[in-house]
Amino acid sequence: MPGQLDELWLYRASAGEEPASFASRIAALEPPEERRPREDADAHTAELAAGKRAFLALTCASVAPEGGSGTAYRLFPGAGEAPGAFVRPSAGDLVAELG
Predict the structure, then answer these.
(1) Burial of 83 (0-12, 13-18, 19+ CB in 10 A)
(2) 75 falls in which pLDDT band (50, 70, 90)?
(3) How far, in Å, CA of 65 to CA of 67, rounded?
(4) DSSP, residue by residue, 40-74
(5) Beta bridge partners of 85
């Protein structure tokens, strides 16, 4: 919404942490490693994910990380999907992938 702050939550898997355990922390909304309030969280997210493999969990954002790859799940799908090498799974596919 114009004039409102977005917030970027950063979760990082610990060394040796199983994907299912990592997914459980996120699903349970455990506190992230970092919380970054931003006027433009989309641009900051794109900057952080540029050139990296990442999992992007978005509500309704349009994020375009240059040279990034990985999985981009958008809760409210729309025209501004993550481009390029990001896989865009359905909700069922995401649940199956995170196990």
Answers:
(1) middle
(2) confident
(3) 6
(4) THHHHHHHHHTTSEEEEEESS-----TT-EEEEEE
(5) 69
What confidence score (pLDDT) does residue 82 get?
59
Q: Could you give phi then psi for residue 26, rounded to 5 degrees? A: -70, -45
Residues in the chain: 99
Which DSSP letter does residue 14 get?
Answer: P
Q: What's this model's pTM, rounded to 2 decimal places?
A: 0.67
Strand partners, 55: 71
DSSP 33: S
Buried b or exposed e, range 46-70, using 16+ CB within 10 angstroms: bebbeeeebbbebeebebbbeebbe
| CA distances for 75 relative to 14, 51, 61, 80, 81, angstroms | 25, 24, 9, 12, 11
Give bridge partners of residue 54 from the DSSP assignment: 70
